[in-house]
């Protein structure tokens, strides 16, 4: 069985030392209650739950998978999953960051993000069940009518019910403008929802007494395309006015998918056959409302990449220290042993440092993004809220796109360290590779994230978030240009940041002549942006490392130097790809 130990020391370093979250949170409305003692207590308890309850179910859940009963259209989750969810709900984890007025604890989003990392590292497939509940809570809270909030939010926050997002259909894929699901008015304020949705995570399971589906559909007078999409709330069991459950609604799982990974998570085909539902938000504005849910989910999926990479690293590092293979090129390191440990070999260290470099800077990026959501929600200054919202919007596609792609590289390198033993199921490494593969696909593929970043966040919104972020990096570089600890890195970072701004301007000019240039450049632009973003957080980490004990401080410096020497130069390749343009992508017959 693979090991997992929550990386609490590094989480606290990112949270307090690099990001200064204690002071930031204290300056927010209600933040005086969010003391370091409270945050640390929650992190400690989360680590206990995830290490002791969820982590041991990871391999067994993968081996068993979910069971679908066609006669009853029900799903039974792997052994131990349901009981673990009961402990999760009883422990108050479902409502950790939800508003107190809905029965939640109102704790910061950045704390919720770190507890989510632990959940996903402990058991990625299990963690998908509660993931979308948080998005459903946000969507109903932001866009729902008061009676909808009263009827649906409290049981979702308590964890008695769970939520889903039902977006795509067999013919649609990522093009939601092709949706065919219909919603016909009943005359009493409700609608009859009919259609088939696919790839619905946690669409059916045995965790909770009810499942609340947020469904995209078309009203009878809907215009064509994405401008004609509405969002409806459709519960598995109808809900009476007093909140009690009524009869079974006509919403059921028609099948579960047989998948490459995350086998303990039920991915369902959902059939709606004149199911009763209610409009959430304005007619034909459902896609906008669903983006509330999708943005939270996209950052959450980025954290999934960080989490599965963290667990893969822990196991590959442990193996590299213990496994004896060959002798060091410079001579035996353990002459009393028949061979030296793998970790003495330079390329093994490269694979380990690659993982560490992505994970530790990726954790700072994810926590930074979550902290912006706290600022956007609760800062007393409206200008600060606006700036934080623009920063968050800009960073979400980078966090989702880069961290999930980095997870592919990290889990591959972790498996490679095990050699042939990594390819067989006994050591658990192949599960990490399989589980990680989906995260670049759902909640928008890497290409979708890249187009969102370049086409919408940079071009359409005139780079509002990018300008804030570039300005922040430039201010950091200026403040540390004479700091001997980080001066060399700052010079590289400042040059890369200047190139980022120039490249963006040049690309905007090319796109005016030919919009296809955006599609040709988008993925390279996402990687280019992401690698510089992580470089910034590594430079900040080196500055903050003065607070650490000597050994940990040196490890941070060494990993940062590795990142700047071995990974940041990848931007040269991506810059070349961007500048090559659409002319190098000819039509394929």
Provide a concise account of the structure shown:
This protein is 57% helix and 12% strand. The chain is an alpha+beta fold.
Descriptive overview:
By secondary structure, this protein is α+β, with helices and mostly antiparallel strands. It is built from 19 helices and 11 strands. The strands form 3 sheets. Strands 3, 4, 5, 6, 7, 10 and 11 form a 7-stranded mixed sheet that branches. The protein has a two-stranded antiparallel sheet with strand order 1-2. Strands 8-9 form a two-stranded antiparallel sheet. Helix 15 runs antiparallel to helix 16. The longest helix has 37 residues. The protein is globular, with a radius of gyration of 24 Å.
Fraction of residues in H or I helices: 55-70%
The geometry reads as globular
Which percent band covers the strand fraction?
5-15%
Rg over C-alpha atoms, rounded to the nearest angstrom: 24 Å
Tally of helical segments: 19
Low-confidence stretches: none
- The secondary-structure element order is HHHHEEHHHHEEEEEEEEEHHHHHHHHHHH
Let me know the average pLDDT: 96
Distance between the termini: 49 Å
| Total beta strands | 11
Overall structural class, as computed from helix and strand content, comes to alpha+beta
How many strands, what sense, and barrel or not for the largest sheet?
Answer: 7 strands, mixed
Spell out the blueprint of helices and strands:
Blueprint: H1 8-18, H2 21-26, H3 36-54, H4 58-64, E1 67-69, E2 74-76, H5 81-90, H6 109-122, H7 124-143, H8 146-158, E3 161-166, E4 182-185, E5 191-201, E6 210-217, E7 230-235, E8 237-239, E9 245-248, E10 251-256, E11 267-280, H9 286-322, H10 346-378, H11 382-418, H12 420-423, H13 429-437, H14 446-460, H15 464-479, H16 487-513, H17 516-544, H18 550-567, H19 570-580
Parallel strand pairs: 3-6
Antiparallel strand pairs: 1-2, 4-5, 5-11, 6-7, 7-11, 8-9, 10-11
Helix pairs in contact: 1-10, 1-17, 3-6, 6-7, 6-9, 6-10, 7-8, 7-9, 9-10, 9-11, 9-13, 10-11, 10-17, 10-18, 11-13, 11-14, 11-15, 11-17, 14-17, 15-16, 16-17, 17-18, 17-19
């Amino acid at each position: 069985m693979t090991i997992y130990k929550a990386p609490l020391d590094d989480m606290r370093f990112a949270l307090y030392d690099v990001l200064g979250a204690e002071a930031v949170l204290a300056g927010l409305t209600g933040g005086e209650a969010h003391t370091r003692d409270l945050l640390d207590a929650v992190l400690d308890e989360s680590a206990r739950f995830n290490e002791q309850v969820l982590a041991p179910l990871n391999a067994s859940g993968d081996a068993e998978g979910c069971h679908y009963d066609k006669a009853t259209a029900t799903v039974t989750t792997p052994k131990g999953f349901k009981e673990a969810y009961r402990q999760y709900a009883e422990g108050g984890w479902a409502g950790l960051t939800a508003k107190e007025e809905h029965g939640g604890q109102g704790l910061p989003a950045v704390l919720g993000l770190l507890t989510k990392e632990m959940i996903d590292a402990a058991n990625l497939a299990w963690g998908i069940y509660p993931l979308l509940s948080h998005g459903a809570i946000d969507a109903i809270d932001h866009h729902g009518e008061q009676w909808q909030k009263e009827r649906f939010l409290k049981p979702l926050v308590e964890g008695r019910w769970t939520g889903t997002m039902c977006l795509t259909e067999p013919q649609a894929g990522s093009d939601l403008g092709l949706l065919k699901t219909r919603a016909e008015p009943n005359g009493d304020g409700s609608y009859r929802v009919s259609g088939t949705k696919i790839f619905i995570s946690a669409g059916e399971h045995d965790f909770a007494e009810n499942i609340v589906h947020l469904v995209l559909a078309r009203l009878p007078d809907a215009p064509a395309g994405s401008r004609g999409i509405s969002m409806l709330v459709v519960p598995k069991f109808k809900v009476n006015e007093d909140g009690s459950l009524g009869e079974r609604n006509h919403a059921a799982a028609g099948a579960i998918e047989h998948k490459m990974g995350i086998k303990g998570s039920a991915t369902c085909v959902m059939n709606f056959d004149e199911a009763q539902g209610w409009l959430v938000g304005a007619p034909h504005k459902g896609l906008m409302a669903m983006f509330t849910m999708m943005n939270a989910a996209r950052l959450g999926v980025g954290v999934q990449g960080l989490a599965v990479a963290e667990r893969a690293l822990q196991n590959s590092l442990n193996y590299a220290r213990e496994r004896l293979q060959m002798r060091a090129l410079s001579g035996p390191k353990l002459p009393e042993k028949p061979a030296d440990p793998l970790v003495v070999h330079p390329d093994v260290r490269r694979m380990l440092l690659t993982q560490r470099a992505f994970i530790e800077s990726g954790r700072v990026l994810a926590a930074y993004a979550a902290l912006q959501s706290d600022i956007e929600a609760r800062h007393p200054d409206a200008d600060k809220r606006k700036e934080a919202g623009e920063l968050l919007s800009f960073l979400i596609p980078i966090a989702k796109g880069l961290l999930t792609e980095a997870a592919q590289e990290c889990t591959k390198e972790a498996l490679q360290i095990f050699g042939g033993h990594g390819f067989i199921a006994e050591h658990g490494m192949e599960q990490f590779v399989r589980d990680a593969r989906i995260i670049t696909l759902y909640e928008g593929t890497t290409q979708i994230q890249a187009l969102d970043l370049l086409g919408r966040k940079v071009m359409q919104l005139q780079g509002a978030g990018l300008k804030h972020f570039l300005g922040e990096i430039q201010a950091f570089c200026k403040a540390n240009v004479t700091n001997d600890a980080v001066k060399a890195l700052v010079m590289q970072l400042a040059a890369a940041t200047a190139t980022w701004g120039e490249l963006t301007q040049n690309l905007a000019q090319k796109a005016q002549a030919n919009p296809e240039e955006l599609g040709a450049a988008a993925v390279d632009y996402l990687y280019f942006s992401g690698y510089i973003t992580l470089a910034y957080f590594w430079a900040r980490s080196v500055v903050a490392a003065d607070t650490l004990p000597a050994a940990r401080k040196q490890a941070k410096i060494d990993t940062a130097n590795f990142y700047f020497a071995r990974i940041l130069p990848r931007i040269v390749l991506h810059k070349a790809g961007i500048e090559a343009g659409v002319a190098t992508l000819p039509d394929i017959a």
